[in-house]
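Question:
When you can, review this sequence-structure pair and walk me through the tokens.
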Amino acid sequence: MNSSFESRYAISPKEAKQMDTETLRTNFLIDNLFEADKVNLTLSHYDRFIVGGVMPKNQKLALPNPDNLKADYFLERREVGIINVGGKGIVTADAKQYEIDFKEALYLGKGIKEVFFESLDANSPAKFYLNSAPAHQTYPSKKITTQDAEIVQLGSMETANHRIIKKLIVNSVVETCQVQMGMTELKSGSVWNTMPAHVHDRRMEVYLYLDIPENQAVCHFMGEPQETRHIWMDNNQAVISPNWSIHSGAGTSNYTFIWGMTGENLDYGDMDVCKITELR
């Protein structure tokens, strides 16, 4: 099967301060997530979080079991959250099929041995975005539609951050061990996300940026609050956010991003807010 696996070590704030643009991007940016008929996985040593992209076009793709996991199968000691950011597709988990539409989610619990991905239309292939973390017990698998999501509106047009947050894989919607995922959609005319910025030492996070119009981009801000850095993001690129780092962004247009988290707790509001005027 056509697949790739990359392992990335954790970086300390002291190391990050010394990085130039290319080195920063090499360590934190995840690009080329979605390639036709290929599974791409990146393991971050921050909480052993795995980020993946699966784009079945002309064939059904299996979830691989990288040697690095030292497991009999991928979900032997893991759970995974999946959000489709492409055309309609089907995920088959131990012979049970789930049809997943654009921006719908699926949670698969620990212990599922076989997972397959396929598209309903090769001309409009599904793009399955994966977030996986170690799991200590088994919870039931569950499909989550936008109607099932917990929806929150935040921000305002006056501060250019009017946004809709759709909590898809969170403990108020589905039971999980660690993984939490959701989607934030910026309204037209708004560009700022996650502002005021924050950190949370209890967990790490990954952002996937999407719905970025052609010839536009998002500037993702990271780093310690008093020592920030930035990475320019294109459509369907992800960025790793360590627990010591802020994670915020501003685009040249409105856009959407998927946030995925793992760590010690499932409290969505667990964050240490940084005052905007104190960021450096």
